[in-house]
Amino acid sequence: MTSIKDIQGDIIKFTNGQERQFDAIVFATGFKSTVRKWLKEDGGLFNEKGMPKHKSPNHWKGENGLYCVGFASAGLFGISNDAKNIANDIFRIVDGK
């Protein structure tokens, strides 16, 4: 794939001279967790790099009602699954099951 030279509206011009039209452009700029800087007591949920210690699909639930969303490295699909799992877990707690 070639690099982007210019973006004009919905047209992207590439360095190899090609132009293509796109409905949406998503820039994925990377991610570095800062959770260790602001969360003092995580109950062992996060490692030293600020990422969950447990791997997907069990990474989202900590202790004492602490949850994390979006750390599965699975994009919007992973975030959606995390949110559903958390909502279901909270429902089970509130419902007493």
UniProtKB/TrEMBL annotation:
<dbReference type="GO" id="GO:0103075">
    <property type="term" value="F:indole-3-pyruvate monooxygenase activity"/>
</dbReference>
<keyword id="KW-0521">NADP</keyword>
<dbReference type="InterPro" id="IPR050982">
    <property type="entry name" value="Auxin_biosynth/cation_transpt"/>
</dbReference>
<comment type="pathway">
    <text>Plant hormone metabolism; auxin biosynthesis.</text>
</comment>
<keyword id="KW-0560">Oxidoreductase</keyword>
<dbReference type="GO" id="GO:0009851">
    <property type="term" value="P:auxin biosynthetic process"/>
</dbReference>
<keyword id="KW-0503">Monooxygenase</keyword>
<keyword id="KW-0073">Auxin biosynthesis</keyword>
<dbReference type="InterPro" id="IPR036188">
    <property type="entry name" value="FAD/NAD-bd_sf"/>
</dbReference>
<comment type="similarity">
    <text>Belongs to the FMO family.</text>
</comment>
<keyword id="KW-0285">Flavoprotein</keyword>
<keyword id="KW-0274">FAD</keyword>
<protein>
    <recommendedName>
        <fullName>indole-3-pyruvate monooxygenase</fullName>
        <ecNumber>1.14.13.168</ecNumber>
    </recommendedName>
</protein>
